[in-house]
Automatic annotation (TrEMBL):
Protein name according to UniProt: 2OG-Fe dioxygenase family protein
Top-rank taxon: Bacteria
InterPro entries with a match to the protein in the record: 2OG-Fe_dioxygenase
Organism, scientific name: Pseudorhodoferax aquiterrae
């Protein structure tokens, strides 16, 4: 599975289920993500302006100033998406050695974004994919959404300061919203119980890495500036059937 190429190994939509079943992850082009959501690519791009209005992450234990983010939580079931009252993001130390074991109250996602039809279509499309992979059309999914901007304010930005990790959920979708004026930010995916891995760089806005969290670990390498104001924007969505992770 290891490849010297940094080009993302794109999966055609009709091979998505088989690919995730076989190797625990798949990479989708932006057009395939829009197809999964059942919306036009332009509808997803309409969500992008809010990434320029993310507040700083006040919980970084490495003392960095390179990360901005918002957070929201939902329940997806039977083709319906329900926002739940704003809550803290929490992970056990076993999955996040750097920031685990602490309640992190990030600012909520903007109501205007959550009301966009494309937002709901994207989350529900991914929830339906998760249900297909689990073979349970009636599954209830506890969803957490994270908007991230990693910038080069300090000369380097770390998309995953905790290193290679799992998230303690069933499935994870990492969507590249955009990147500007940077180098680095390489995606790395490894078997959780094996020697194989793959590395590539997502560059197309709204392309996506989709992961079976029990089977693979993942990370993104640091970014460095090529121009002033360099940054990398992502949307991370996690799906779990056993409720939200809480302290």
């Amino acid at each position: 599975m290891t490849t010297p190429s940094f080009v993302p190994p794109l999966t055609p939509p009709e091979q998505l289920l088989a690919t995730v079943h076989r190797q625990g992850y798949a990479v989708l082009a932006a057009a395939s993500v829009a197809h999964l959501a059942g919306c036009a690519p332009a509808a997803l791009r309409a969500l992008e302006p809010s990434w320029s209005d993310l507040p700083p992450d006040a919980y970084l234990k490495d003392g960095g100033r390179y990360r901005r983010r918002r957070h929201a939580s939902f329940i997806a079931e039977a083709g319906q998406l329900q926002a739940v009252p704003h809550r803290a993001h929490w992970q056990p130390v076993a999955y996040n050695a750097l920031h685990g074991g602490m309640e992190r109250w990030f600012e909520p996602m903007l109501a205007a974004d959550l009301a966009q039809p494309a937002w709901q279509q994207l989350v529900l499309g991914l929830a339906a994919l998760c249900s297909q992979l689990r073979g349970d059309a009636q599954a209830r999914w506890y969803v957490e959404a994270h908007q991230f901007r990693i910038d080069t304010t300090d000369g380097i930005g770390r998309p995953t300061p905790e290193g290679a990790h799992r998230d303690g959920v069933d499935f994870v979708a990492v969507v590249l919203v955009g990147r500007q004026g940077i180098k680095g930010g390489e995606t790395r995916v490894f078997e959780a119980e094996g020697p194989n891995g793959q590395r590539f760089t997502l560059t197309e806005p709204w392309s996506m890495l989709f992961l079976d969290d029990a089977r693979v670990i993942h990370e993104s390498t640091p970014i460095q500036p090529l121009d002033q104001g360099g940054h990398r924007d992502t949307l991370v969505l996690t799906f779990r059937t056993k409720g939200f992770q809480d302290a």
